[in-house]
Design brief:
The chain has 10 domains: 247 residues, Immunoglobulins (Immunoglobulin-like, Sandwich), CATH 2.60.40; 81 residues, no CATH class; 81 residues, Immunoglobulins (Immunoglobulin-like), CATH 2.60.40; 79 residues, Immunoglobulins (Immunoglobulin-like, Sandwich); 83 residues, Sandwich (Immunoglobulin-like), CATH 2.60.40.10; 81 residues, Sandwich (Immunoglobulin-like), CATH 2.60.40.10; 84 residues, Immunoglobulin-like, CATH 2.60.40.10; 80 residues, Immunoglobulins (Immunoglobulin-like, Sandwich); and more. The chain is built from 3 helices and 79 strands. A hairpin with a 2-residue loop joins β11 and β12.
């Protein structure tokens, strides 16, 4: 079924905007006679504006937009139908509770198929878009899911009129009770339009579901009559919903129709809290589906099939009550031109004709009378014929030419749309014979062929196997220009031929060509086996031919043997036997063989192991020296002989001979390297090696000649020491053996502690004696000597010690001094005493000498001149005499320090003093100290090189005492100068607060200000903003009266304090504005009270109501919202 309902009018109120979210408003086409105002659309005379009484444009779906229905599921006596949608729906239908079926409801099999959800109040109607939304599952009554046509409904006009009258009376009576102040009690457990369980003690309806109703009562005594009234009201409302007239169908087009109906509401009767919902059911071929549900009184059904017959009926719902379906109105959609056919197909093609065939399109309600076939040969489409059949043969065409065809169907309503173009070409001559296929590659089981391809050609390749005897058979058909024939036999000849095929036919065969497959590699030959006796240096091998030669004759055999250094070729030729010579005795050889034909070489055969006979080993190569020979040992190595004799070596024998001819065995073993020890340095030796196995010893190798390296000399005897004086000695020694190399020099070392690291070299040369000077008296010394040759330094001799005699002290060192103006204090380090205690020191200052009292290393020299340089040196004295003088040092006395300058006070203030003085010496530093009246000591207030300083944070009217001294780098600190007193001045009074001004009379003002201690006051006044202040008062009073002020003038007043002749700062000015002169008085007349205008009264009342509403809303919000 195809159908879409569009609401065209609304009798139940304004249309809901719910539908506009998916289908915006648009114009609808109506006949001119139905359009009352055609002048609104002069460009489109057939377009008419939809009037307001038709309401909005809600859209519902049916047919292909209908959701698929799933099988019903029974749950506790209630049937649930699952409606599956396929795309997300922004408005989900609310679930409703199942209810009992109302009175006069048609049987379940007569109900419309589409589920719906009733709406209450002003909510929008529920719609379903089946083919475009995801699955939503709703609980709906089972009687809404059937697809049979509605049964005929018998109208009860008289009974319905009586029920209408009765219902109207009850509503009027209820309204009267409300107006009289009687409250209607609907019951707490039975709300308005709520489902009921029973009616008059039994089920309320044939379906078992309760119907909705409203109740009324008059105080507490009306509860007994509520039950009966509710039953009558429900039955009356149900009868009204069932008294539905057949809907009217008009304004039909091939794909749409306008359906209209009337509202069942009686005139003058209102239904409280009841909203009527109209369900329009569309029937096609005996099956009904809901296409619209809403409050409108008209609906345009769209997406109809032209020429098909449809039925529509109406069903009305009020809340949870559903009336019976109306009688069906049957109509037929007008026919339309046929649909667009599919593109024509080519059934047969020749050089001059084409056979086209096509399928019949939908006729849209009118039988197709004929078809129109047009052809385009390059100059545009032209009508070719009008066949009645669905095929046609076009003759007299040009060979190998492309044509374009299109088809359209025609019925009594006109011609339909053209089909898609069909492009087809006529046939041409068959292709010529191609060139013979060429061989691209070949192996033992396949042949790869290729050929040249022209445009739009397919090929057929045939092969002839002479051995099979079946002749040429096809092996390939297709458009490719290469093919690989596989699964062939090796070394076999095959014949091939090729033919081209196009749409125009098959061409002749190409010339035949023959190609052979390649042979395969042969199998490995048999394992080689020894033939005859195996000698120490030769043997003979033989092998069997391969079991499979690969389809070609064996051309060569290759024999390889491995003696331990890899396989090497021993024979290559057609024979199956080979002689192997020039072998090593007692060696294990592995032999293998392979064969080859034109296809390649076979795999290697299984290996065979052959061992030659063993003999004595051969001579080794001459030994080699591993590194340079040393003085007493040498490292010798050698290599194994080239021929081991076929048996493993048992040992090597290494022999050594010196220049005297003495031979000795120095090594026996399997090692190939040996260290020969206990040799003499600088001697010549010969050494050779002999290899031995289990058969015997082989010949000795050639001799290796080498000379041992020279060694350092031996250690000399301990040296002999002779003391000449406290500061000199003589050392002598004898030469040791040189160990094969002449002695180059002797080395003599001396130390004062007998520690190896403390020895220092004092002589190197060829002499065996040495004189040593500059020794320290009364000090032990240790001596040792060694010899050196080209091999290196020899071992040190034993240590010889000696002690020098006592002597006078050494010279003092580290002479330093501290200078004053007339003295020098000298310091020095204590020198070595040289075996006798120091008794005293002798100090020389220029030509004067001074001796210290005892061994104290310091001396004070006084009575010197200031700023004078003196030469100073010191010497120590013990019982053996005066020691050496120290180095002469120059020491200078300091100059006289600078005299203190004279202080004077340059600037005086109440909290600081500025002091100045004349510079005494260039580059001098000054220190100024101050003593307060309540302090006992001076404290520094300035240090620096300036000639003045400012002392801050002082008390007013206070006397302070200052003193100064000068110092420089050479003379040091000088003496303090004479104390100088200085006194700070008294402080001026502070600035008073701004004066207060008070206007006493129109031209008289009083100025007052805060009082200060022991101060007089100066009051100044200025006229205007930029005027000059003038003094108007001087005295000790804290207020002053300003008189004779001008009207309409601004004044500024400020005050300052004076104490002890010092004036303080002015206060901030205070402004005073004198008002203008008063106007002459006029007699006042009594003014009558005016009444408040009605507009102002209304505004005041609205403001009061708004304020009360805001206060109530705030209070309610605080009561409702939970407190945190």
């Amino acid at each position: 079924m195809v159908g879409v309902g569009v609401a065209e009018g609304g009798g139940g109120g304004a249309p809901d905007g719910y539908y506009g979210e998916y289908y915006p408003p648009e114009p609808y086409y109506v006949p001119p006679e139905m359009c009352p105002h055609p002048q609104q659309h002069p460009q489109h005379a057939h377009m008419c504006t939809v009037h307001a009484e038709y309401g909005g444009m809600p859209v519902v779906t049916s047919a292909t937009m209908m959701p698929p229905l799933l099988p019903p599921v029974l749950d506790e006596g209630m049937r649930h139908y699952l409606v599956a949608h396929h795309q997300p729906h922004p408005h989900h239908a609310p679930h409703h509770q199942p209810h009992h079926q109302p009175h006069h409801q048609p049987p379940p099999h007569h109900q419309p198929p589409h589920p719906y959800v009733p709406t209450n109040g002003a909510g929008g109607p529920q719609h379903y878009y089946g083919g475009a939304y995801p699955a939503h599952f709703h609980h709906v009554p089972p009687h809404h899911m059937q697809h049979s046509p509605p049964p005929p409904v018998y109208q009860k006009d008289e009974r319905t009129q009586r029920q209408y009258s009765k219902l109207k009376q009850k509503l009027e009576r209820k309204h009267t009770n409300r107006n009289n102040g009687i409250e209607v009690n609907s019951g707490a457990s039975t709300p308005s339009l709520s489902p009921r369980k029973e009616l008059n003690g039994r089920s309320g309806g044939s379906g078992g579901a309760s119907s909705g109703a409203w109740s009324e009562g008059e105080g507490s005594s009306a509860s007994a009559s509520v039950q009966g009234d509710d039953d009558n009201d429900t039955q009356a409302l149900l009868d009204m919903l069932s008294a539905t007239r057949t809907p009217q169908v008009s304004d039909m087009t091939p794909t749409s129709a306008l359906v209209q109906w009337n509202s069942p509401r009686p005139e003058g009767v209102t239904f409280p809290n009841v909203e009527l919902t109209y369900d329009l059911l569309l029937g096609d071929r005996g099956r009904y589906k809901a296409i619209y549900s809403g409050p409108s009184l008209s609906c345009r059904v769209r997406d109809l099939r032209p020429g098909c017959e449809y039925s529509v009926c109406l069903q009305i719902r009020a809340g949870e009550l559903t009336g019976a379906a109306s009688e069906a109105a049957t109509f037929r959609a007008p026919p339309a031109p046929p649909e667009r056919p599919a593109a024509a197909r080519v059934q047969q093609r020749t050089r001059t004709s084409l056979l086209l065939r096509w399928s019949a399109p939908a006729d849209n309600g009118a039988r197709i009378s004929h078809y129109v076939l047009e052809m385009d040969a390059g100059d545009g489409f032209a009508e070719l014929t009008r066949p009645r059949m669905r095929q046609h043969t076009i003759n007299n065409l040009q060979p190998q030419t492309c044509y374009r065809f299109r088809i359209a169907a025609v019925n009594e309503c006109g011609r339909g749309d053209w089909s898609d173009d069909t492009v087809v070409c006529t046939a041409g001559p068959p292709p010529p014979a191609p060139a013979a296929p060429s061989l691209r590659a070949a192996d033992s089981t396949s042949l790869s062929l290729e050929w040249v391809r022209r445009a739009d050609e397919e090929f057929t390749l045939q092969m002839d196997d002479a051995i099979q005897g079946h002749g040429f058979l096809p092996v390939y058909s297709g458009p490719d220009c290469a093919y690989v024939c596989d699964r062939l036999r090796r070394a076999t000849e095959y014949r091939f031929r090729l033919r081209c095929e196009t749409a125009d036919g098959k061409g002749p065969w190409s010339p035949e060509v023959s190609y052979n497959t390649l042979p395969e590699r042969p199998c490995p030959p048999g394992r080689p086996a020894p033939r005859g006796k195996i000698h120490s240096r030769a043997f003979r091998l033989r092998w069997d031919p391969p079991t499979d030669d690969g389809g070609a004759e064996i051309e060569t055999y290759t024999l390889e043997i491995d003696g331990g250094d890899g396989y090497n070729c021993a024979y290559r030729g057609p024979e199956r036997e080979a002689h192997c010579d020039r072998l090593q005795p007692g060696t294990q050889y592995r032999a293998r063989v392979r064969c080859a034909n034109v296809a390649g070489e076979s795999e290697w055969s299984a290996g065979e192991t052959v061992v030659t006979e063993a003999t004595c080993p051969g001579a080794c190569a001459p030994p080699e020296v591993a590194g340079a020979p040393r003085a007493t040992l040498v490292s010798v190595r050698w290599r194994a002989p080239d021929c081991l004799g076929g048996a493993p070596l048992a040992e090597y024998r290494l022999e050594l001979a010196d220049t005297d001819g003495l031979v000795r065995l120095v090594h026996v073993g399997l090692e190939t390297e040996c260290v020969i020890r206990e040799l003499l340095p600088g001697r010549e030796y010969r050494v050779w090696v002999t290899a031995c196995n289990k058969v015997g010893a082989g010949p000795p190798s050639s001799a290796l000649r080498f000379t041992t390296a020279p060694a350092p000399p031996e250690a000399p005897e301990p040296p002999i020491v002779s003391i000449d004086s406290p500061r000199s000695a003589r050392v002598e020694w004898t030469a040791p053996p040189n160990n094969g190399a002449p002695i180059v020099d002797f080395r003599l070392e001396m130390s004062a502690t007998n520690i190896d690291d403390a020895f220092a070299e004092i002589y190197r040369g060829m002499d065996t004696a040495c004189s040593i000077t500059k020794l320290t008296p009364f000090t032990p010394y240790f001596f040792r000597v060694c010899a050196t040759n080209s091999a290196g330094r020899g071992t040190w001799s034993l240590v010889r010690d000696a002690l020098t005699p006592r002597a006078p002290p050494a010279a003092p060192a580290g002479l330093r001094h501290e200078a004053t103006v007339d003295s020098l204090r000298l310091y020095w380090r204590v020198p070595a005493s040289h075996g006798a205690d120091i008794l005293r020191y002798r100090v020389e200052v220029d030509d004067a000498a001074f001796d210290t009292e005892g061994p104290t290393p310091e001396q004070l020299v006084e009575g010197l001149l200031p700023d004078t340089v003196y030469r100073v040196r010191v010497a120590a004295l013990n019982e053996l005499g005066l020691g050496d003088w120290s180095e002469e040092t120059r020491a200078a006395t300091r100059p006289c320090p600078p005299a203190p300058p004279t202080l004077r006070c340059a600037q005086v203030a109440h909290n600081y003093l500025r002091l100045e003085w004349e510079p005494s010496v260039e580059g001098a530093q000054y220190c100024v100290e101050m003593r307060a009246p309540d302090a006992r000591e001076f404290r520094p207030v300035y240090r620096g090189s300036a000639h003045s300083c400012k002392v801050k944070k002082l008390r007013e009217a206070t006397t302070y005492t200052f003193r100064i001294r000068a110092s420089d780098e050479r003379g040091g600190r000088g003496a303090w100068g004479e104390p100088a007193p200085a006194r700070t001045a008294a402080a001026p009074p502070p600035a008073p607060h701004a004066p207060a001004l008070a206007l006493l009379a129109p031209r008289v003002a009083l100025a007052s200000w805060d009082a200060l201690d022991d101060a007089e006051y100066v009051l100044q006044c200025a006229r205007g903003k930029d005027a000059v202040f003038k003094e108007v008062y001087t005295g000790k009073d804290t207020q002053f009266q300003l008189e004779d002020l001008e009207y309409n003038t601004e004044y500024q007043v400020r005050v300052g304090a004076v104490r002890g002749g010092l004036a303080g700062a002015w206060s901030a000015p205070t402004r005073l504005s004198v008002p203008a002169a008063p106007a002459p008085a006029r007699p006042r007349r009594p003014r009558a009270a005016r009444a408040l205008a009605p507009r102002h009264a209304a505004l005041l009342m609205a403001a009061g109501f708004l304020l009360v509403a805001v206060l109530v809303a705030v209070l309610v919000q605080r009561l409702v919202d939970p407190r945190p």
